[in-house]
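[step 3/7] inverse_fold.run input=structure_tokens len=143
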């Protein structure tokens, strides 16, 4: 907010200016003036507007929160066809999965297989006779 506008605001508040005049001054000051009127700094107002964006399927992660479990149904776990034990955002119960290709290999987005069979899911569409059909991650049946 410009210094002159701030000075006018302080002066009008102290001089008993009309409510309409004060509101017009605040509206002219933009979001910073409104934030100050609400007792927030302009940077606080910007922080509140930021929305959490979950990591993409396949992105490295260290907790389920990063994958936005509620909305995307992805969890932070070891994915299907992983050659290492690294955790990434992959499909948990009810997440969308990519099915399989003609060779039976899992397509992205992939379901999680977990570590040691814990939190292990498979894609409901895993028949290679119908390749490239998306499905849903369902619990991996015990062997």
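[step 3/7] decode complete -> sequence:
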């Amino acid at each position: 907010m410009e210094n002159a506008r701030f000075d006018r605001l302080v002066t009008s508040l102290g001089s008993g200016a009309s409510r309409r005049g004060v509101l017009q001054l605040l509206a002219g000051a933009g979001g910073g003036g409104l934030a100050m009127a609400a007792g927030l700094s302009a940077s606080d107002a910007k922080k509140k507007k930021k929305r959490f964006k979950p990591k993409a399927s396949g992105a490295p992660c260290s907790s389920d929160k990063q994958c936005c479990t509620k909305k995307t149904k992805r969890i932070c776990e070891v994915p299907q066809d992983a050659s290492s034990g690294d955790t990434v955002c992959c499909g948990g119960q009810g997440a969308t999965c990519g099915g399989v290709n003609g060779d039976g290999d899992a397509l992205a987005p992939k379901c999680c297989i977990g570590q040691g069979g814990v939190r292990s899911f498979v894609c409901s569409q895993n028949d290679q006779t119908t390749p490239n059909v998306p499905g849903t991650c369902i619990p991996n049946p015990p062997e």
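[step 4/7] annotate
The chain has two domains: 3-49, 51-143.
The longest strand covers residues 135-139.
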